[in-house]
Amino acid sequence: MAAAAAAAAETKNVNELLEEEEEQKKRDGEATVRMIGPLVFMIVTGGQLLNQSRPLLVNSITQGNTMLTATMLSRFAALGGAAEFLLNPVIGRLSDRFGRRPMLLTSPITCAVLRGAVFAFPSSAEVIMVERMLSSAVVTGFFSTMRAMLNDKLSMEALVIASGNISVFAGLGVMLGPFIETFVLSMFGARGNFLAVALINVVVSIVMFKTAKETLPVSEQKPINLIDCSPLSFFKMLRTVRKPAAAFCSIFWF
């Protein structure tokens, strides 16, 4: 009887500990969403503010030459895609080496500088090209690092719920951004939107600096492997699983 009672008490304690752990994960998830969600909204909204403003500036540079404007915008977009392809593996490895927080801060700080440069030099095609190219890479790197941060803190149900809630903030940014852009365009012109986005990123940088905590323990930080920094390093997945097609599809998941 005594042994059975002791076993029952131990089982109860284990269950209570598990419930407490789940409650803590839930609280961590909610705190993460409260911190990251509004910042994601601001970053996505900022990106949407430039959908029409950048083409308008380029069109002004080309003096209304539609074909030349389209050619330049296509070239800038291609360079942005190339920068994402080349730099994101590097950003990922740097976050594994130095932690998530520095890489999360890199994106808004870089974007504030780049968008501020376009505001200062709106007639420079070179400045707009660099802004388009590098901002694409660092913003994508921000979201990759954010997902890594969530994986560090949360697991299973809490991770899924937090990711879904943060996606809602991103969706709101996509929906509201174009309306805000139109308003700023009507009041201050295309250049004004670049200033607005630069200021948004300054605010995001300050808030993140004050509130974001490092989630990757020093003991888990890894040395940088130059081979893993290659943009083709993801092909290693195909050699380590039995179903290469499924592994290839997983590259684009999340």
Explain this structure to me?
It is a single chain. About 30% of the residues are buried. The chain has 2 domains: about 200 residues, MFS general substrate transporter like domains (Growth Hormone, Chain: A, Up-down Bundle); about 30 residues, no CATH class. It is globular, with a radius of gyration of 22 Å. The protein has about 250 residues and is mainly α. The chain is built from 8 helices and no strands.
Secondary structure layout plus pairing:
Layout: H1 2-48, H2 53-61, H3 66-98, H4 100-120, H5 125-153, H6 156-211, H7 237-240, H8 244-250
Overall shape: it is globular
Distance separating the two termini? 52 Å
The number of helices is: 8
Number of strands: 0
